Amino acid sequence: MDIIQVSNLKKSFGNQEVLRDVSFSVKKNEVVAVIGPSGSGKSTMLRSLVNLEQVNGGSIRVQDDYLVKDGVYAGNQEIKQITSRMGMVFQHFNLFPHLTVKENLEIAPRVVKGEASSDIQRKSAELLEKVGLSDKADAYPAKLSGGQKQRVAIARALMMNPQILLFDEPTSALDPELTGEVLQVIKQLAQEHMTMMVVTHEMGFAREVANQIMFMDKGEFVESGTPEQLFTNAKFERTKSFLHRALK
Amino acid sequence: MSVDYILSITKPMLEGAQMTVLLFIIAILLSIPLGFLITLMAKSNNKALSWFAHTYVYVMRGTPLLLQLLFICFGLPLLPVVGEYLVMDRFVAACVGFVLNYAAYFAEIFRGGLLSIDKGQYEAAQVLGFSKWQTTNKIILPQMFRVALPAVANESITLVKDTALLYAVAVPELLHFAQTAVNRDFTIVPFFIAGIIYLLMTLLLTLFFKWLEKRFKFE
């Protein structure tokens, strides 16, 4: 079953086309890595899925509902309902600096969903343990390393029980020695069959964890395939030359 | 110079200082929310509201507070037709002037605070499903107040000293009693005492804001 189906997505900033006719789908329990050079439209594509960018044409279907159909958006209430099924992890974490780690996790379920306090606390404790940060529950984000912040951000997104988790270059803002701990958490989620879409420059990680790798270039979806197919047997010259450069 | 003399002139000054403190409290309590409202108007998509807020800030910051006080106390009653309904108690009129004036400064301080908040905060809140109102209330405001705190502290201290302008509209306050004593007794001492009372008030404020800043350090 498809969690997300995207067809003919188009988006321009002024004269510049950043997405040209992008189509793809993500199945339940699948991990999709999106790779491609800087400025290829990967992030814009990902951000369109949660309505942080508005597209100029095409369709985005999440499960059975259209966020946008042939360039026409659903109503506000529907948009909210549809995007609530997706979680997002940002390159720069975007934790709330005025809240402790625990409060960062608990604020959305409390304010947005109005869940019971005891349930929320049980869940936040569980998730903090999962990302290995139980001892930081009462710390403010300012006191955390980049890797720790990103693990908190992942836990915060998981608090809302998303059907799919989107990652926008989750390790690009981290010091190299801190990327491992974040990738490890994503890997663990993959083993638990969380559906995920990860925009990344970490080729090794993409190859190891993804079921499907999507290559984008100049706003176009060029090709996709299993890591094996793409890394050893890409169909297009630009995929090959990108991978060649990226793996060097 | 006897202790008795000092006590005898300090007493009316402290009574005058009550006026100062009262004005300070009223002005702070009303001008901060009003200032925030003006910030929201300035940022509103509604052109008329935004224009009004910017013009308001321009006029209030661009003219002397003393002129505004005189205008409200002595100018408004001279207006034809409506003037007679605009005669206010001097102290009330002064409060209105201070609130309107300081709201403009606070509006600018809060606008600066809002500008300092990263757009990633809005995006994270949106993706987590917060409504606009929830985002403002739970995410943006607390951060804005934290950023604005040092500037708010500064403005509050200015306000303590600006209360001396009550003198100009003949509301008896701290400085008024000091000046009276100086004229009557030909001594500079009352000015020193007035200075010390102002310093004590600003010291209290400074300590209070230091404490607030520490309390909301988020570390």
UniProtKB/TrEMBL annotation, chain A:
Annotated keywords: ATP-binding, Cell membrane, Membrane, Nucleotide-binding, Transport
Main location, first listed in the record: membrane
Species name: Brevibacillus formosus
Top-level taxon: Bacteria
Gene Ontology CC annotation, any one: plasma membrane
Topological type in the membrane: Peripheral membrane protein
Residue intervals of the ABC transporter domain: 4-243
MF terms in GO: ABC-type amino acid transporter activity; ATP binding; ATP hydrolysis activity
Phylogenetic classification of the source organism: Bacteria, Bacillati, Bacillota, Bacilli, Bacillales
The name this protein goes by in its record: Amino acid ABC transporter ATPase
Record localization: Cell membrane
From TrEMBL, chain B:
NCBIfam families: HEQRo_perm_3TM (TIGR01726)
GO cellular component, one term: ATP-binding cassette (ABC) transporter complex
InterPro entries attached to this UniProt entry: AA_ABC_transptr_permease_3TM (IPR010065), ArtM/GltK/GlnP/TcyL/YhdX-like (IPR043429), MetI-like (IPR000515), MetI-like_sf (IPR035906)
Pfam family, any one: BPD_transp_1
Family, similarity comment: Belongs to the binding-protein-dependent transport system permease family.
GO molecular function, one term: transmembrane transporter activity
Protein keywords: Amino-acid transport, Cell membrane, Membrane, Transmembrane, Transmembrane helix, Transport
Annotated transmembrane regions: 20-42, 62-79, 91-110, 188-209
Keyword Chloroplast: no
UniProt protein name: Amino acid ABC transporter permease
Entry's Gene Ontology BP terms: amino acid transport
Cellular location(s): Cell membrane
Tagged with keyword Cell inner membrane: no
Coiled-coil intervals, chain numbering: none
